[in-house]
Amino acid sequence: MLIDNVEERLHLKKSGQTFLGILNDIKRRPEDAASELGVTTNEIYSIINGEKLISQDLVEKATRIWPVNSRDFFNIRDDCPLGIKIMTAEESKQSSRVMDRAGKPYYEYRDTAMSTTAPFRPEWIEELCVVENNDPANTIAQWNNGHFLHQFTYFVGNVNFYYEENGIKKVAVMKTGDSMYIAPFTRHTFATRSGSDTNGLILALTYGNKITGDTQQEMLCLPISQGSKFTLDFSTINNSYASLIKFYRKISNLTIEEISKRTGFSKTLIETFENGEKIPSITETKKIAYSLGINIRDLLPNDKIENKVIIKKHEDTSSWYYPENKKSYKFLELASTTTLPDSKAFEVEVFDSNDENLDLKVGLHQYVYNIGNTQISINWEHDGVKHSKIFKPNDSCCIKPFTSHNFRGTGKLLILRIGGNLTGDSQRELSFIGEDNVKRAISETVQWFDSHGKH
Question: I want to staple 227 with a disulfide (CB 3.0 to 4.6 A). Which of 33, 210, 222, 231 is the partner?
Answer without folding.
Answer: 222
